Amino acid sequence: MSTSTVTRRRADAGIAIIVAVVVVATLARPLIHDLVARPAVANFATVFVAIVLQAVPFLALGITVSAAIATFVPPGLLPRVLPKRPELAVPVAAVVGAALPGCECGSVPIARRLVDRGAPPAAALSFLLSAPAINPVVLVATSVAFPGRPEMVLARFVASLLAASVVGWVWARLGRDSLLVSRRNAHAHTGSKPSVFLQTAQHDFLTAGGFLIIGAATAALLQTVVPRRVLDSVAGNGILAVVALAALAVIMAICSEADAFIAASLKQFSPTAQLAFMVVGPMVDVKLIALQAGTFSRAFAVRFAPLTLVVATASAALVGSRLL
Amino acid sequence: MKPAAGTLTALVGLLTMRLTVDGSFQRYVRTSMRPWLLIAGVALLALGIVAIAIGIRTPAEPADDDDHGIGVGWLLLVPVVALLLVAPPTLGSFGVDRSTAIRVTAGRSSLPPLAPSDQPIPMTLQEYTERSFDHAGASMRNAVISLTGFVANGATATSFRLARYQISCCAADAAAAVVKVIGFSGSAPPRDQWLTVTGRVSSVEGEDPVLRATTVRDISAPEDPYE
């Protein structure tokens, strides 16, 4: 038996699995129906579907940009264009992030593609953090959510840019770039330009989409079981309030284009705590950690997420104490 | 490329389109997301179909199994199957006391008075809350207001709580506005029942604004359940 027959059989098995899952689930329909009739399960299911659905357009945009980079950016271009020294490349990449309107789910595959194309990893990570945090759509949403308080928009921009740059610099000094390239990602797609584009888009969609599911389910579970009142009880305490809202941002995993409205509605918290919610949210949350672990490697996510959380919270506290 | 990978992608695209076209996407995200969801759905369906076509025509290379395994992508079947079978409902009363509460600072601003009207004036629960806390509801004095929402927990013999969520992006960021309804006849309506209540502003009790009801009418859940 030739190898191609074997793989063809496996490919057919894939379709068979899909059909089997759909058929079994259809048979189990009454069971699932009863389950969703429970309020807590219904709440979980609705929040889960909402996070996934809300991310689909941003994911589609992200994989399109990522596939375009893989197809049209020649491998040597980025190292030539970006400043050689990481001290400079990092802030440049962070500022460039402001040009990409989108949500955090889309920027993970793009950042990986930038690394593939030879961008310094520290710079790609800065881009990854800043793109969802300070793009024009997010800043406009922030100004709408905080009417008459432009200092909130400025504080968000400054604190996010600072956090993205500091994390990039720290990674350039101490990080291990080898963690960014897992075995599965080392493979470059080859062939004609349309073929590379399609393969990259298809591959990135399945990878990012799968981890999005894990992240969305985690966030929906936490939202369903953790009562918000627990967080409200620490609202009055200065530093604890900042830490509490940073933690809430990690748990809730809401879109960076919506988080300003939630921050604004958390009126019992100080402006600095609200700022921490908006700076941390686009950079670290349960959905993003799952995406980063899957796209780069688990060892990477274990180091990168805590580093980012600490730097983003500190940056928000510092900028908030000066500007707000 | 594997046909199975293309099939998964096409399924996600197809389902996104279905939710968008039949309007049920409004249970989960803002109505304004419609065009973006439609574009993304069409794009994913097209990508999936092309991938299936290529996968069928060209025999897969052995390397595909190492480098292009669907792996975690299989998880995309979870929302696909869940949505094909049961559409999760709109957010209900379960989350009202868990979500962020709409809080309004008293006396922050002076809202303009409502224009006089013969008909009850429809209003969002959020606006009602803001107007109630603004100079003890002075801007709504003597007006008959119409509010639409669902019944939250915490009903008593003489009052029940009417709630509605505001969402800014998707149901994950929902925040509930709650209005206490008094002065209705009979017993309190069951939890999660959708209602249109008309009535007049009454003084704020505790955290919630209060409406003294004149009519309470059962309705089915609106197509866009959020404010």
In summary, what is this structure?
The complex is a heterodimer of chains A (324) and B (227). Chain A is an all-alpha fold.
Strand order of the largest sheet of chain B: 3-4-5-7-6
Total strands of chain B: the figure is 7
Roughly what is the average pLDDT of chain B, rounded to an integer? 84
What shape does the CA trace of chain A take? flat
* Strand-residue proportion of chain A: under 5%
List how many beta strands of chain A DSSP finds: 0
- Nearest-integer average pLDDT of chain A: 83
Name the assembly state: heterodimer
Low-confidence stretches of chain A: 1-7, 183-187
Structure class of chain A: mainly alpha
Q: Specify Rg of chain B, calculated over alpha carbons.
A: 24 Å
Query: Largest interface, and how many residues on either side?
Result: A-B, 81 and 81 residues
Poorly predicted runs of chain B are 62-67
The percent range for helix content of chain A is over 70%
Helical region count of chain A? 16
Give the distance, in angstroms, between the N- and C-terminal Cα atoms of chain A: 71 Å
Major sheet description of chain A? none
The radius of gyration computed from the alpha-carbon positions of chain A, rounded to a whole number of angstroms, is 21 Å
- Element-by-element helix/strand order of chain A: HHHHHHHHHHHHHHHH
Shape descriptor of chain B reads elongated
| Whole-number count of domains of chain A | 1
Question: Mind explaining what this structure looks like?
Answer:
The complex is a heterodimer of chains A (324) and B (227). Chain A is mainly α and 324 residues long. Helices cover 77% and strands 0% of the residues of chain A. The longest helix of chain A is centred in the first third of the chain and has 34 residues. Helix content of chain B is 29%, strand content 22%. A 5-stranded mixed beta barrel of chain B has the order 3-4-5-7-6. Chain B is elongated, with a radius of gyration of 24 Å. About 3% of the residues of chain B have low confidence. At the A-B interface, α1, α2, α3, α10 and α13 of A face α1, α2, α3, α4 and β1 of B.
